[in-house]
Design brief:
This protein has a single domain (about 10-235), classed as Aldolase class I (TIM Barrel). Helices cover about 35% and strands about 15% of the residues. The protein has helices spanning about 10-15, 30-40, 60-70, 85-95, 110-120, 135-140, 170-180, 195-205, 225-235; strands at about 25, 45-50, 75-80, 100-105, 125-130, 150, 185-190, 210, 215, 220. The strands form two sheets. An eight-stranded parallel beta barrel has the order 1-2-3-4-5-6-7-8, surrounded by six helices. Helix 6 (about 135-140) runs parallel beside helix 7. The termini are close together.
Length: about 240
């Protein structure tokens, strides 16, 4: 396995490129300067969090649009949306002008196809929260309809939905089985940090890893933690699957 951090994935065609590189998505970007810092360290994607029922990193849609406009070609701008109504998701994408939708909650049947038709060229990444064996079947059912699956550690059944940003590590054995069961690219999030990302890559073999709090200090993106995170991702080349 070869790790690279220079190749982005701006639209669905590049999401379907060779899985020989492990990309890095830096989430919860809150300022243009944070996006530039993440990209300078090698991020292939930045995550921009819109209104959520819980969790960190939420920013206003006008700021999301400003950051997305500042992201250079070849780097993906992910809008994290908790909307499940198709017209609402379409309107959100058009207001923010991101090139990728990260759908953090389960959508009704047929919704992904409706988004495809309304938003040609916009990549669709569906989050599956790893809560047990049932998450495998959920991922397998959704995979044919999206450009990628992103595994996270939320709990959609909680009294206040947890749809990401928990900082918890989920069951990587289930994540590995999901990766083996689907043909689309797999992103892995949930409690990743410099101390464990190498092992996560070794155990799961994902297309990309996704990190928020693990590269922050007091809520701000930390250049030293970013450096260490990317070093560990690169070091995973020496840990064959």
């Amino acid at each position: 396995m070869v790790i690279c951090r220079c190749k982005g994935f701006q639209v669905r065609e590049s999401l379907m490129e060779s899985k020989s590189c492990v990309r890095v998505k830096i989430c919860c970007i809150a300022r243009v300067e944070e996006a530039h810092l993440a990209i300078a360290h090698g991020a292939s994607a930045v995550g921009l969090v819109s209104r959520m029922p819980s969790g960190p990193g939420v920013i206003a849609e006008d700021l999301i649009a400003e950051i997305a406009a500042a992201v250079p070609p070849g780097v993906a701008s992910f809008l994290l949306t908790s909307e499940i109504d198709v017209p609402a998701i379409i309107d959100q994408q058009r207001r923010t002008c991101v090139n990728t939708l990260q759908l953090v909650d389960a959508l009704p049947p047929g919704a992904h196809q409706q988004l495809r038709e309304a938003l040609p060229g916009i990549a669709l990444v569906q989050v599956v929260h790893v809560v047990g064996e049932q998450s495998i079947a959920e991922a397998v059912a959704i995979a044919p309809h999206v450009d990628a699956i992103l595994l996270d550690s939320g709990n959609p059944a909680a009294p206040v939905k947890e749809l990401g940003g928990t900082g918890r590590v989920h069951n990587w054995e289930i994540s590995r089985r999901i990766r083996q069961s689907i043909s689309c690219p797999l992103f892995v999030a949930g409690g990743l940090q410099p101390a464990n990302v190498r092992e996560a890559i070794r155990q799961i073999g994902p297309y990309a890893v996704d990190v928020c709090s693990g590269v922050r200090t007091n809520g701000k993106l930390d250049a030293i933690k970013l450096r260490d995170f990317f070093r560990e991702v690169e070091a995973a080349t020496d840990s064959p699957l």
